[in-house]
Every structure is written in structure tokens, then in C-alpha cells.
Amino acid sequence: MNANVETHAIDLASSSVRELNSALHALKEGSNASLWRIANPRGLHSIAAGLDAPVTVEVDGPVGYYCGGMNKQATVIVRGAAGVGVGENMMSGLVHVEGDASQAAGATAHGGTLLIEGNAAARCGISMKGVDIIVKGSVGHMSAFMAQSGSMVVFGDAGEALGDSIYEARLYVRGSVTSLGADCIEKELRDEHKKELFERFKTAGVSGQIDPSEFKRYGSGRTLYHFHVDNASAY
Amino acid sequence: MCGIVGLFLKDKALEPKLGEMLSGMLDVMCDRGPDSAGFAVYGSGESGKLKLTLRAPEGFDFAGLGKTLGDDVTVSVRGTHAVVSAPAAREAEIRAIVAKTKDVAVVGAGQRMELFKEVGLPSEVAERFDLAKMSGTHGIGHTRMATESAVTTNGAHPFSTGADQCLVHNGSLSNHRSVRRDLDRAGVPVQTDNDSEVAAGYLTWRMNQGRTLGEALEDSLDDLDGFYTFVVGTETGFGVIRDPIACKPAVMAETDQYVAFGSEYRALAGLPGIETAKVWEPEPAKVYFWDRAAA
Q1: Are B19 and B26 in contact (CB under 8 A)?
Q2: CB–CB of A91/A111 below 8 Å?
Q3: How many CA atoms lie within 13 A of B13 on its CB side?
Q4: Number of domains making up chain B
Q5: Phi, psi (rounded to 5 degrees) for B148
Q6: Cα-based distances in Å from A15 to A36, A136, B39, B41, B229
Q7: Is residue B123 located within the same domain as residue B104?
Q8: Is residue A171 part of a domain?
Q9: How far apart are CA A183 and CA A161, in angstroms?
Q10: Helices and strands (H and E) in chain B: how many
Q11: Cis amide bond preceding B158, omega within 30
Q12: Which of A57, A97, B27, B286 would staple A48 via disulfide (CB 3.0–4.6 Å)?
């Protein structure tokens, strides 16, 4: 590790999440890269939410809801499982969960990367708007519901109604898909998509270990989101 | 919102600590449900004996009631509740006397189950009943934020509709009115306006028909409509189920010593050995069930 990196240690057994987040929010764009080590998270909510500085936050254990939510620039690493809405609405940076993630991981996120080593539960990437989500395990039902843009790469399986009412997000699943949601269809995996998968493999630390052609691509059938007069009676 | 917790011990050595562990879990869930709380603990019991948990207004003379019930009855008072232990053969007779006693209600019955619930901040409710000192094999608890019925002790969880059976619920049922009518026809009594009691009654009804707790939970997926995560207890069993949409949160942890359920991981964070426990989110529409009798 770079010896010049300024390191801070915060113990949530003695400090509050509010104190931690205030200290992190005080860091600005030009702040020196620093490393923040957080002990005893015990499933507390909103840890390292709303960051906007190029710092690294390592959380040593399971976190509660909305960890790394609204993240900009920062790298947030969770050494454990994450509760509902990890990385929700993140704009940039990296949120890395070493365990499983609960529901709505990466919900509405605009940018950055959400990397989940384990499984993600229901509604992973719901309404995602540009984030790149990588799940090394499986995702639950209704994942990528109304996904607008960005990509979701799932190394395992996807549950029911994958990509229901999807717009232009790109979904890649290596395993089985229980069912596709309305207007979500399988699409051809072209070279440009394999290239994208190569990039995600790099981020996930598995370059050269997986053949991208093992993945299937899913996306929008584009029959729902343009108004079509034949559907008028459905509204 | 609402908070639910459950703990099923595999290691006998932890049994004296069941109440302490459960009360710690309940404390953390105060902010998911600050208006009332309750819990059921499966403690000691002997065959041929029955425990009736009674509830009465503050200051009620339970000792006096005990005398009326007879010499073969013991009464142990905890705040506004009392556990009456009596020969099981006298159940109908004792229930008849209790029914005639003003302001006293039976909240639970069984060989081993004791059930306590009251309006108030969950941590205070647990303290009032001295939950931390209770021992047992398994227990469930609830912190309530009322939605479908009023904030009253009657509306507090757990609900018990059969011997040694109880249920806690996070969510709301949308077809409880029609299920209530089915239960009525089937002769399963549902006493309050609460939707969760209907769920408890439904499971009792199924089990009366010979279904196991696990099978009854499977049945509920077809027959109960709405949002729910249920944690249920029977004399020997402990079960968890979430509806197929699974909006209501749930986390489970298992070690060699116990199986634990919490609405959030925070509730489990204080348990022994949680750092190395298997922690997972129960899947939607999947029955999780542990039984001491089968073990």
C-alpha cells in the first residue's frame, strides 16, 4: 500500500454513523486520497452514503440499508453482506460488496460500478439509469425492472421477470433465467458486447477465466415504451 | 413497518440465555415498531399439564383468581400477565372460569408456550415482563407499527390461535376479511380485527386438518393475499415464510448453536458467533422450517 495515503480509523461502536458521514462529507473534490477504515458496522443504515470525494472507505463487516447510496467518486468496500438499497442512486465511483446484497441493490443508479461478490436479492438494478452492475452470484426476481441504461452482468442465474418493462439497459446472464419480464427479449451477443463483458471481467478480477460467449444478452423488445395505437386500450 | 425476530436454539447450553438473546434482538427493532411489542417463549413444560397465559389490567388480583381455580393450579405473575399452570384435563373448566372473570383474557395456551404483549416501547415492554431472564428452546417477538388495526394490546403480536402455536407478521393482508369468513365456517375462532390474527388462524386451521407447519405455510402462499413475512412457532418447530413479492425485509443467520431471524441484520448483530454465522436473505415464497422433534 502507498505509504503516503492518509489513513483514518472510525469505530462505529463508539462513533455514530452521523459523525462518520459528516467527516466523509467534509472531504471535497481536491482532497488527498485517503483511506477510511470503519469497524463494527453491525448492520447500521446509511454508512458512507452521499460521498463526493475520491477516497476509499473499507467497512469491516455487514452493513444495513443504503450503504454507499448516492456515491460520487468514492470507492466503498463492504467486507460482509449489505442490506436493502446498497449503492442506490450512485453517480460514479465503485461500491464493492464482498458478501450478498439484499433487495434493490443499485436502484436508480446513474453511474459508477456496483460489484457484488455474492448474490443479490429481488429487484437488483431496478430503474437503473447508467450504472454498471456486476453480480458474481445470482439475482432475485424483477431485477432490472424498468432499467433505463447501463449494464448488468450476472455470473449466476436470474429470477422471475428479468428486465420487465426494460428500456435501453444491457443485461448479460451466464446461467438460467426463470422468466423474462414484459418486453424483455434475448438478443444477439455481438463483438461489441463481448468487449463490454471483457471490461466487466477485468473489474471483477476474473480476466481470462471466463469465456464471454457463455453469457446470453437480454434487452428491450421496444414494443412497450413507444406509444402504439394498438395498445391504446391497455392504458 | 414492523420488526420481527425469532430465535431457535440447537445448543441446549444456550437455553438459559434465550430470553436475554431475544430481548437484545427486540430492543434493536424498537425503531421499526415503537407502538407495541410482544413475544412468545417456549420454556419448560410437562405432559399432562397446560399453561394458560392470562392478561388483565394493572393491579389485578391474579393470586385471588388462582385460589378460585383450585389447589392443583399454580400462578406466576409477570406484570399485567400471569401464567397459570394446571392439569390439562381441567382446561375447559378453567377457561370457563376465566371467561366469567371481568377484564381477564387468555392470550395463549399450550404445554410450553408463554406469551406476553403490551402497548408501549418494545424495550420497556420486554423489561416489564423480564424477558431477559426467561429460558427456553425457541421464541419469537414483534415490534409493531400499526397499519390494519388500532394500537391496542389486542392488536399487538404474537397471535396465538391454537395450543403452542403463535405467529408474528410484518406486512398487511388484503384478503383477511374473506379468510376470516372461511375460518368462521371452519370453527376457528378469530377474536380481534387484526389481519395478522387471521393468518395465525389460517395456519391453525390447516394444522387441525393434519398438515404440518411447513405444509400449512406452503398452503398460505395460495390462500393469503398481501404483503407478509411470517415467523411462526409451534411446540417443537420454528418456521419462516415471505410472500412471493417479498417487499418486507428478512435476514436469517444459522450457526451450530442456533437459527435466528431478524427484519434487519442489526437485530442479529449482537448474537454470539454472528461473525462466522451463515447469513442469508430468505427467498420469496420459500418455506424455511426447523423442527426439534425431527432433529
Answers
A1: no
A2: yes
A3: 3
A4: 2
A5: -90, -20
A6: 14, 33, 31, 34, 33
A7: no
A8: yes
A9: 10
A10: 7, 16
A11: yes
A12: A57
Give the percent of chain B with pLDDT over 90.
Answer: 91
**Interval B14-25: pLDDT, tens:** 999 999 999 999
C-alpha cell at A48: 458512507
Q: Is residue A205 in a domain?
A: yes
Say yes or no: B12 and B146 in one domain. Answer: yes
Same domain, B33 and B168: yes
CATH code where residue B195 lies: 3.60.20.10
CB proximity B268 to A under 8 Å: yes
ipTM for the whole complex: 0.86
Tell me the residue range of the domain where B163 lies: 2-44+116-291
HSE of A88 in the Cβ direction (CA atoms, 13 Å)?
22
- Interatomic CA distance for residues A155 and B262, integer angstroms: 28
Cα of B140 to nearest chain A Cα, Å: 20
Q: Is B282 on the interface with A (CB under 8 A)?
A: no
B270 neighbourhood in chain A, CB within 8 Å: 42
Pick from B246, B280, B284: CB nearest A100:
B280
Cα–Cα separations (whole angstroms), residue B16 to A214, B44, B137, B295 = 53, 11, 9, 20
- Look up the CATH number of the domain holding residue A75: 2.160.20.60
- CA gap B27, B131 in Å, rounded: 11
Task: Assess contact for B33 and B144: CB atoms under 8 A.
Answer: yes
Helix (H) or strand (E) holding A17: helix A17-25
Is residue B279 within 8 A of residue A62, CB to CB? The reply is yes
Whole-Å CA distances, A68 to A52, A107, B156 = 11, 12, 35
Regarding whether B97 and B6 lie in a shared domain, the answer is no
CA end-to-end span of chain B, whole Å?
Answer: 34
A61 touches chain B (CB under 8 A): yes
C-alpha cell belonging to residue A142: 424483477
Domain identity same for B219 and B247:
yes
pLDDT digits (tens, 9 = 90+) for A75-110: 999 999 999 999 999 999 999 999 999 999 999 999
One domain, residues B281 and B202 = yes
Total-model pTM: 0.91
SS3 B204: helix
